[in-house]
Specification:
The chain is of the alpha/beta class and 500 residues long. Helix content is 41%, strand content 14%. The chain starts with 16 loop residues before the first strand and ends with a helix.
Length: 500
C-alpha cells in the first residue's frame, strides 16, 4: 500500500439511528476454545510476559486531590505505554491471540497433511472474538513449507485515527519475527502521526475525510485479500470493536486494584469513580469488563478484598461535545426505558444469564465529528459498551447500599475549550503532554463547572470510619489514556485557538 488516496469503496449510507443486537460474552468463548488462552481471571498474560505492554504507574496527584478534596485523585499513566497510549494493552492481547491461533491452525494442518488426515478443525479467531471481518485466501495452509517473505505469517490491517495504528504497529514490530502491518488513516490524521507509523514500519495509506471512510476502505481491502491469489492471511483489526481488545484494556483495572491495595496499607480504600475518555467504546468496554471480573472474584487470593475496593464505583464516560457518540446512544437506551428494564446479568458476572443479552438497542450515529479531539472520532460506539454499561448500572441498583453500592455509568461532556484547558493545566501540574481526547477525561476535575457535578455524584459514597482526611474518602481514578498526536507546539496552538 502507499500513502496516496485510492478510489472510494462503495459503502451503505448510515442512518442517524439503527437497531442492533449484541452477542453473548465472546470473551468467555476464548478461554473455552483457545487451548493456549489465558485464564479469564488473569487475562492477557502472554502479551504481558513478552513485554508488549507495561504495568503503568498509579500516581497520587496532589494538585488534583486539592481540587477534589476530600477525595484523593490517582492518575493511571497509560500515556507511558510503548506507543504512547492505552491501546497497547488491547492490541498486544489481540495480536498474541490471533498469532497463536493461526500458528496452531498451521501446525495442525501440516500435521494432518503428513498423516494423510485432513479432518482436523481450524480455530477461527473471529468465532472466538466475535469479529466478523477476517479473511484468508488460502485456508488449507498449503504454503506452510514456504518461509519466504510474509508467507506463513498472519498480516494485520487496521483503520485508525492514529493511536490504534501506532499501538498495533508497535506490538507487531516488537515481536520476533516481526509481523507485517498495514494502516489506513483518514486525511485528518496529523502528519507527525503518519511519519511515526512509517518510521515504525507500517505500510500507510491516507484516505477519507474521517475514520469511518478509512475504515470502509480497510474492510474492502480485507475482502479483496480473499481472492487476490497471494496465499496471505489478512486479519482486520478494528480500533475499538473487538472483545480481544476489551479484555486487554481490562488489565488496567486489575493493576489499579493491585496498586491501591498496596498504597499505604489502608484497609478502607475504595474507588468512588473512574474517569475515562470514550471514542468508539473500546476503553470503556475494557474498564467495565475489568470491574465486573474483579467484582465477582471471591474465595482465596484476596478476591473479597478486590471486590470491596470497587464496590459502588461509578464510571464517568468523558467526551467532547463534537464527538459525543456514547452520550447520544446512552440517552437513547436509558436503563429506565421499557426495552431496557430487564436484567441481563446471571448473577455471576457473566452477563449472559438470559435472552435479554440479545435484546435490541437503538444506536445513535453522529452526522460528523466537529471537535478538536479527533481521536474520539467514531460516529457510533460499539453496541457492546451500552450493554456493559447497563449491567454495571443494574449492579448499582441491586447492590446493598449499606455495603457501598451505587455502581453507575454517567456521561460527562465537555467543550473543546475545557478539554484543551485540562491538557494545558495537566502539563503545568505534571509535566506531561496529552491529546485533547485525553483532556476530556481530565476536564471533569479541572473544569469548575464539571467538578461540581462530579463531587456531588460522589457525595453519597460511604465515608471511612477513620475520619482520616483524604484517606477516609472514596478515591477518584483518571485513566490518562495518552495519545501521540500532541507536541508542545500543538498544545500552544490549541491554547491560542480555544483559550485566548
Amino acid at each position: 500500500m502507499s500513502s496516496s488516496s485510492p478510489s472510494s469503496p462503495s459503502s451503505p449510507s448510515s442512518p442517524s439511528s439503527r437497531t442492533t443486537t449484541a452477542n453473548p460474552t465472546p470473551e468467555r468463548q476464548l478461554a473455552a476454545t483457545h487451548p493456549q488462552s489465558d485464564q479469564y481471571s488473569n487475562p492477557a498474560q502472554t502479551a504481558r510476559s513478552q513485554n508488549l505492554y507495561h504495568t503503568t504507574p498509579l500516581l497520587h496527584s496532589l494538585p488534583l486531590s486539592r481540587l477534589c478534596h476530600p477525595h484523593p485523585v490517582y492518575l493511571k499513566l497509560d500515556l507511558l505505554q510503548p506507543s504512547g497510549s492505552f491501546k497497547d494493552r488491547g492490541m498486544a492481547h489481540l495480536v498474541c491471540t490471533v498469532r497463536d491461533i493461526y500458528a496452531y491452525n498451521n501446525n495442525s494442518s501440516s500435521s494432518s497433511s503428513n498423516n494423510n488426515n485432513n479432518t482436523s478443525a481450524e480455530m477461527d479467531p473471529d468465532r472466538i472474538a466475535n469479529n466478523p471481518t477476517a479473511s484468508s485466501s488460502n485456508n488449507n495452509s498449503s504454503n506452510n513449507n514456504n518461509n519466504n517473505d510474509n508467507n506463513n505469517q498472519v498480516q494485520f490491517l487496521s483503520s485508525s485515527g492514529g493511536n490504534a495504528g501506532l499501538a498495533l504497529t508497535t506490538v507487531c514490530r516488537s515481536l520476533r519475527p516481526p509481523l507485517p502491518v498495514s494502516v489506513i488513516v483518514p486525511e485528518t490524521t496529523k502528519p507527525m502521526v503518519v511519519r511515526k507509523l512509517e518510521t515504525l514500519g507500517a505500510d500507510v495509506t491516507v484516505f477519507g475525510k474521517n475514520w469511518n471512510e478509512a475504515d470502509a476502505l480497510a474492510r474492502t481491502m480485507v475482502e479483496d485479500a480473499k481472492t487476490d491469489g497471494s496465499g496471505n492471511t489478512v486479519y482486520y483489526v478494528s480500533p475499538y470493536d473487538n472483545p480481544l481488545l476489551w479484555t486487554g484494556h481490562s488489565t488496567a483495572v486489575d493493576e489499579i486494584i493491585d496498586q491501591l491495595s498496596c498504597n499505604g496499607g489502608d484497609d478502607d480504600v475504595r474507588i468512588g469513580a473512574i474517569l475515562a475518555s470514550v471514542g468508539g467504546g473500546g476503553l470503556l468496554s475494557g474498564i467495565l469488563e475489568g470491574l465486573e471480573r474483579n467484582y465477582y472474584r471471591g474465595g482465596g487470593g484476596g478476591g473479597g478484598r478486590r471486590s470491596a475496593i470497587i464496590r459502588g464505583t461509578k464510571v464517568m464516560a468523558c467526551e467532547t461535545e463534537g464527538a459525543a457518540s456514547f452520550a447520544a446512544s446512552l440517552v437513547a437506551n436509558s436503563l429506565d426505558s421499557e426495552n431496557n428494564s430487564n436484567d441481563d446479568d446471571d448473577g455471576n458476572g457473566n452477563g449472559n444469564g438470559n435472552a435479554n443479552e440479545e435484546r435490541s438497542l437503538t444506536m445513535k450515529r453522529l452526522d460528523g465529528i466537529t471537535s478538536v479531539a479527533t481521536s474520539l472520532g467514531a460516529l457510533e460506539v460499539t453496541p457492546a459498551v451500552i450493554h456493559r454499561a447497563h449491567r454495571h448500572q443494574r449492579r448499582g441498583r441491586c447492590d446493598d447500599t449499606s455495603a457501598g453500592g451505587g455502581e453507575d455509568v454517567l456521561s460527562y461532556t465537555c467543550t473543546d475549550a475545557e478539554a484543551v484547558d485540562a491538557c494545558v493545566k495537566f502539563a503545568l501540574d505534571h509535566r506531561m503532554l496529552v491529546e485533547p481526547a485525553c483532556g476530556a477525561a481530565l476536564a471533569p476535575i479541572y473544569s469548575e463547572r464539571l467538578r461540581g457535578r462530579l463531587l456531588e455524584e460522589l457525595s453519597g459514597m460511604r465515608q471511612s470510619s477513620s475520619g482520616d482526611g483524604d484517606r477516609g474518602s472514596s478515591a477518584i481514578v483518571v485513566e490518562v489514556c495518552g495519545g501521540s498526536g500532541v507536541s508542545a507546539e500543538l498544545l500552544m496552538e490549541w491554547k491560542k485557538q480555544f483559550l485566548e
